[in-house]
Design brief:
The protein contains four helices and twelve strands, in the order H-E-E-E-E-E-E-E-E-H-E-E-H-E-E-H. It is α+β, with helices and mostly antiparallel strands. It folds into two domains: 109 residues, no CATH class; 70 residues, no CATH class.
Length: 204
Amino acid sequence: MSNWNSVSTILRLTRALLKDRLRTDGRDSYIFQGSGSFTLTEDYPSSSTIKVYKNGTLLTTGYSYNASTNILTISAILATNDIILICYSYYDKYSDAEILDYIESSFLYFNQFGYRKTFKLNDARTEVLTVDGINPTVKECYQIAVVSSICIDPENISIRTKDFSLTSTNEKHSKTELISNALQQFTTWYGEMSFDEILREDVN
């Protein structure tokens, strides 16, 4: 069962809306010549999928990956001309860190439009909570993913379901207009979404 308020779930939903799919053909090979640090070819690897081979033998320890530099460093003993193979899955468009920053910034729009709950990340930045400690509902997590995807790429958003439609592909809308449209539709769709004009800030 999914933990809907986990950052990993909202990241997955946001990537799906952005059509940023996971590719599984990441593969880099190197010949060790003195430096155990290797820059991966693809920019946005999924760190949990990385596998490192030394001369065809899988290393289960003795290496680390730095997502901010995209460098994998092997601390295990290597000899000159050892063949290093690194296999991994990766995303085409965005890193997890980029999307997480957009998820966090999306919370501001809920407040600006007068949403009655205030969202925040926990200290570890692994879950979305509200300021009173109550977990967001499944519906709110979908809402956060939609607003986050608009923040990231407002000019190429196209979401169509039986109950929900949002697009700027053929019509030019500002980011604020798209978010306003999305929140209004969520209010109609879910019924229980609650906004307060007194709480609303000037977002025009």
